[in-house]
Write a structure and sequence with these properties.
The complex is a heterodimer.
Chain A lengths: L3 E6 L9 H14 L1 E5 L11 H4 L1 H18 L3 E3 L2 H15 L2 H12 L11 E3 H8 L2 H7 L8 E4 L3 H4 L2 H7 L11 H8 L3 E2 L18 H17 L4 E4 L2 H9 L1 H8 L7 E3 H9 L3 H4 L12
Parallel strand pairs in A: 1-2, 1-3, 3-4, 5-6, 5-7, 7-8
Helix pairs in contact in A: 1-14, 3-4, 3-5, 7-10, 11-13
Chain B lengths: L7 E10 L9 E10 L4 H12 L18 E4 L2 E4 L5 H8 L2 E5 L6 E3 L2 E2 L2 H9 L20 H5 L18 H5 L6 H11 L7 H9 L13 H5 L6 H14 L7 H16 L4 H9 L7 H9 L15 H11 L5
Helix pairs in contact in B: 3-6, 6-7, 6-9, 10-11, 10-13
The chains are: A alpha/beta, B alpha+beta.
The structure holds iron/sulfur cluster (4 copies) and FE2/S2 (inorganic) cluster.
Chain lengths: 293, 326
């Protein structure tokens, strides 16, 4: 098989508040035989907040990021749900509106770039499922996670809006009954935990303006996982991770009940199963202690 | 031409039952039925009532996906019962289907809910054209096709409530207007004939109604049977607040603007700086968490941020492509 090679859009979070996710992405890629070319030129995707303020600017900036992946002739892989949403949304809008594409390209021309629409944009979770396959991943597992009940937390911006999301990957996902992360847990040998909140929102995007709403949503998610006997949670989104891992005291207060669980990034879970070291997976950066390793 | 063959398969239904005037708690009734490939969800509701239990209650009227009365949930997914094909439901969820009202906590009888909060929010945004109409106008009030397009099909809403009761913020914050009301507000904001543009926007900007409290989960977009895409309209309203100069400085508007400032400076987001700019002096409440995160290597100070390479390109584009001011 030809070596897999992707252009990696890290987003901002992985390089600041979730360094463990950045490290574990590279550790896991190496185990899986994936080469990652980091898009060091990329800017922030705007996180759907710049989009509230200046739609056109956010399109231009995201188109620039994609243009760099296109220059490498590579598929762009994201490791943040919200990056995936905003980048894929940009691609969708430009590919379906030649007038808009032209307007954006007029701007990009000023810096010698062009958006063509030649690179696919896919979240790492779906990239490995599509391009490596769950069976192959299962074969590569050296430390099955069989003693763990693992609660998947999908995060909205990987599964909704489903029409957009399903454009980027082969494995169609039903946002009301998502499977990808459950299947990855099972491929790693773990037991996937079913609970109502697994495909719900964690409230990250209103943390500043509506802290109570935000904390209730995350709090319910952790509580739902605990009530269904999860040992820990796993998520493909660093923003969800920040909500679920870093402020369990706020979440507990908001829902009136003591809650806390270790929360792993999908890369860390995969890394554990594939035999990466604890140092490579950056567990020391967690706020909720990862107490089982 | 392929001939159309009708197939049947067995489906187990778990159906929510509750009568607020008699039952202390709701319960679920199980029915096993043969379902044909011709049927829609409403056919199943009808057959439960007509063949199995005459007391089973639900709303329906038009049977054409127009009146919005029949919205319910199948396996947690909002759906118009008269429009949704059973085959598609079976394909999505398999042969075990759970039928529930849009909102369990608002259930009155089986599928029938009290939609009072929905209508109250709907009315509050002044869902009608406000305009000085001349009694004897000299010519028609023309709307060009291009102007009509600006509504972005927000006028297709049938007030079924599917989005409203799929919205997690509606569940948590009873002041939140909800996706349908905001989509409706946009429908009139975008109408060239409306004169209340500014006033309505100003009202929407009031914090307790929560135009800025939408968590951007896209549940409403997913739920809407008419592809109204309410979250898209909420985004448009946010942009309008800025473009019309209605946006005043609050933590949410500063948060949106902070992204541009940070990108112009670093290319990437300066996460700490963004929170500082958004919160102003309220930053103190974040300090305990910040200390915790700092000790775990989760906070990068401004001087430690890895700026985007070719930052000059980004700066140039921010300067040339910005369309909004604050
Ligand atoms: S969502 Fe982020 S803030 Fe977040 S990483 Fe994407 S680019 Fe930036
Ligand atoms: S914060 Fe909510 S909207 Fe954002 S990715 Fe996490 S779950 Fe989705
Ligand atoms: S996107 Fe906003 S309005 Fe729509 S369901 Fe989510 S929180 Fe509610
Ligand atoms: S926006 Fe769509 S889901 Fe919401 S009330 Fe209108 S038609 Fe129903
Ligand atoms: S019965 Fe009118 S929309 Fe279904």
């Amino acid at each position: 098989m030809k070596k897999l090679k992707y252009a990696l859009f890290t987003g901002c979070t992985a390089k600041q508040s979730t360094p463990e996710q950045y490290m574990s992405t590279f550790a896991v890629a190496e185990k899986l035989g994936i080469e990652l070319v980091e898009l060091v030129e990329a800017s922030c995707c705007g996180a759907s907040h710049l989009q509230d303020y200046d739609d056109f600017l956010s399109l231009v900036l995201n188109a620039r990021n994609i243009a760099y992946a296109e220059k490498h002739g590579l598929t762009m892989v994201t490791i943040c749900n919200t990056c995936q949403l905003n980048t894929a949304m940009t691609k969708h809008r430009l590919d379906n509106n030649s007038e808009l594409k032209e307007k954006v390209n007029e701007k990009l021309k000023e810096v010698g770039l062009e958006y063509k629409g030649t690179s696919n944009i896919i979240h790492f979770l779906y990239a490995i499922i599509d391009d490596i396959g769950l069976d192959k991943i299962k074969e590569m597992v050296v430390t099955p996670l069989s003693q763990f009940n693992i609660a998947p937390f999908y995060g909205c911006h990987n599964i909704r809006p489903s029409e957009l999301q399903n454009e980027s990957h082969k494995t169609a996902e039903n946002p009301y009954n998502p499977r990808s992360l459950d299947d990855l847990i099972i491929a790693c040998g773990g037991n996937s935990v079913d609970y109502v909140e697994k495909n719900k929102c964690c409230g990250f995007h209103v943390e500043l303006q509506a802290p109570h709403t935000s904390a209730v949503l995350s709090g319910k998610a952790v509580a739902g996982a605990m009530d269904n006997n999860a040992d820990w949670m796993v998520t493909p989104c660093p923003l969800c991770h920040l909500k679920l891992d870093t402020q369990t005291n706020h979440l507990s207060e908001a829902i009136g009940r003591e809650i806390a669980l270790p929360v792993l990034h999908m890369q860390q879970m995969l890394g554990l199963a594939l035999g990466c070291s604890n140092e490579q997976l950056g567990f020391k950066h967690h706020i909720e202690k990862v107490n089982f390793i | 031409m392929s001939t159309h063959t009708i197939t049947t398969q067995q489906v187990n239904f778990k159906v929510f039952r509750f009568n607020a005037s008699e039952d202390y708690l709701p319960y679920y009734e199980n029915y096993t039925m043969e379902v044909t490939s011709e049927e829609v969800v409403l056919d199943i509701l009808n057959r439960i009532k007509w063949e199995l239990d005459g007391s089973f209650s639900y709303r329906r009227s038009c049977r054409h996906g127009i009146c919005g009365a029949c919205a319910i949930k199948v396996n947690g997914r909002s759906t118009l019962a008269c429009k949704e094909r059973m085959n598609d439901m079976i394909e999505l969820f398999g042969n075990e289907l759970t039928i529930e009202p849009l909102s369990i906590k608002r259930a009155v009888k089986d599928m029938i809910i009290d939609k009072g909060d929905f209508w109250q929010k709907h009315d509050a945004i002044h869902p009608y054209l406000i305009s000085d109409v001349q009694e004897h106008p000299e010519h028609e009030h023309l709307v060009t096709p291009k102007e009509a397009e600006e509504l972005l099909e927000a006028d297709l809403c049938i007030q079924c409530g599917a989005c409203h009761y799929a919205c997690p913020v509606v569940e948590v914050n009873s002041d939140f207007f909800g996706p349908a009301a905001f989509a409706k507000a946009y429908r009139f904001e975008a109408d060239v004939r409306d004169d209340a543009h500014h006033e309505r926007l100003q009202e929407l900007h009031k914090e307790k109604q929560g135009l800025w409290d939408c968590v951007k989960c896209f549940e409403c977009a997913e739920a809407c049977p008419k592809d109204v895409n309410p979250i898209d309209k909420i985004t448009k309203l946010h942009q309008m607040l800025f473009s019309e100069g209605v946006a005043t400085s609050n933590v949410a508007t500063r948060h949106a603007v902070a992204f541009k400032n940070s990108i112009a400076k670093f290319g990437v987001l300066d996460e700490g700086g963004m929170i500082l700019y958004s919160e102003g002096t309220s930053i103190v409440k974040h300090i305990p968490l910040a200390i915790k995160m700092f000790t775990k290597g989760k906070i990068v100070p401004p001087w430690g941020i890895t700026k985007s390479e070719n930052l000059d390109e980004i700066k140039k584009l921010v300067a040339s492509s910005s369309t909004a001011k604050f």
